[in-house]
Amino acid sequence: MSSWSALPALWPELAQRFPTRIALEEPHRQPPVQLTYAELAQAIQGFAQGLQALGLQPGERVALFADNSSRWLIADQGIMQSGGVDVVRGAQAPPEELDFIYRHSESSFLVVDTPDLLKRLAPYLETWQPRTVIVLWGEGTGSTLSFSQVMQQGERQEFKPPHLASESLATLLYTSGTTGKPKGVMLSHGNLLHQVENLYVVFTPQPGNIALSLLPTWHSYGRAGEYFLLSRGIHQIYSTLRYFKQDLTQYQPHHIVGVPRMWESIYEGVEREFRQQTPGKQKLIWGLIGLSKRYITGKRLWQGLALEPVQPSWAQRLGGGLTALALWPLHQVADRIVYKKVRQAVGGRLKEGASGGGALARYLDDFYELAGLTILVGYGLTETSPVLTARWVTRNLRYSAGLPIPGTEIKIVDPETRQPLPVTRKGLVLARGPQLMKGYYRNPEATAKVVDDQGWFDTGDLGWVTPQGDLVLTGRAKDTIVLSSGENIEPQPIEDACLQSPYISQIVLVGQDARQLGCLIVPNEITLKAWAQAQGHSLILPQDEPAPGAWTLATPEVLELYRRELKTHSQDRPSVRPFEQIGPFRLIAEPFTIDNGLMTQTLKIKRNQVMERYQDLIREMFV
């Protein structure tokens, strides 16, 4: 453990250890940005001094509405070093959401990405009345200060170190709640430092290693990864979706912190190249991949890293080892012909890649292992800073969420009785550790609902634990849907909007770990039959007897009707985000009822039971 009591103490120490080593580089900004660790530490303190000169007092909240950049990090750490608390959100968030966050957090300062964002927020400024407005990228106008003007203010101000303890509030991150109103997660300096001090089990960076930064740093996952990697003296390259594949080749990163969708996009690029080969070459490639899958299956058994069976016998392990030994020469052939190109697609030097924000599909887990690339999956929530468990570099159990990181406890309990369950039994995942939030800001009732009197946090997820302590997630007990891109979506408001359609009786959104939302729909039989009759047809519902010239339920015309209805009603809401649009859907013949076990006594749909009953249909939707 370090002697740091607060996160900003990192930067002077890093400046002493790596004064001339490059910390941050933004090659795609004009002009390009490059900062050494000494320059970064100096800039952070300069920004802190500027804020103090402008009157920021310890504990005051500063709204930081901006996207990933070197100046985001400088502002973030400058706010903390001055004693302030930053309230972070991305620049692309709906203005109405930023309005709620600013007011609820009781912020007094406003830092925005660009003048364009400030223009979008203009209608709210009169209500907010911020004492100071700062633009990170762009010129200051009138009462608005530019980044350089804040730094100039700092040059005339003697730095006054605030008293910052481990339990001091560092940041507020707003996360969606079931009501649709975001909740302010209070993270302390100790919460954030726990991640910095313990993510070494996932990554093994060396000073000077290159890391590509693509995830938003206002998100707890990208933020924790960036803090940790920089604490080890790495060289961070800021990339974008537009330049990401180019940057992989040009900068050849050693480390990447990503979400499942990112790893999926790399796989899709490789697979597209495979499909462009001649039929004979394609047959060879897929044949070798098939043999390699048998090789890694046997190897996992032999090494004791197979999730299934949970506890293999010695005979099974020996059989796996012999299979792997026999197929090893063919796997080496496949490596030279196929997998070497995959490694080159990610730059050729990748030591470790992290995947979080959603489950990594099993076929991707297999693919990257075949290619000899180490992808380590982590699990956590904003409320836990965020990492709770991760696959360790010393134990990469595929299909699992890994072991608890140091200092973290995981407990599986019965969702109804809250009694602890034995290993391998599925139940509700509870967690406890130094990374657990201080609570929800100005919302003690919500805090009490998720943290019990013994400090156990209800993650809302279902899972089980292997005899070795690995966590395996099986679903979500709470309603939030997390797409493979890491976006969190609360289904209730979207479902409520769709239920305004006269043709929809019941609807359940699906899409956990998928690229986009989908849904299951129970049609309103009365209005649907009336619509069909108006079209000059009778409609065959599942319980009806067939009639000559009648339609079955899922005709192209009926499907088009529902496609239009979903588009109309799901988008007829304020602040609709692009990823909240519904893609695939299926019509369900049997309504969700109490009798069939799909509704509670209070007539709420049991999402988990619906997902389980229709799991094959849902899987087919996203193939």
Automatic annotation (TrEMBL):
Pfam families: AMP-binding, AMP-binding_C_3
EC number: 6.2.1.3
Main EC class the enzyme belongs to: ligase
Keyword Ligase: yes
Gene Ontology terms, MF aspect: long-chain fatty acid [acyl-carrier-protein] ligase activity; long-chain fatty acid-CoA ligase activity
AMP-dependent synthetase/ligase domain: residues covered: 15-441
Family matches, as PROSITE patterns: AMP_BINDING
Ligase found in the keyword field: yes
Transmembrane spans: none
GO biological process: fatty acid elongation
Domain of life: Bacteria
Family matches, as PANTHER family: ACYL-ACTIVATING ENZYME 16, CHLOROPLASTIC-RELATED
Full protein name: AMP-binding enzyme, putative
Species this protein is from: Gloeomargarita lithophora Alchichica-D10
Gene designation per UniProt: fadD
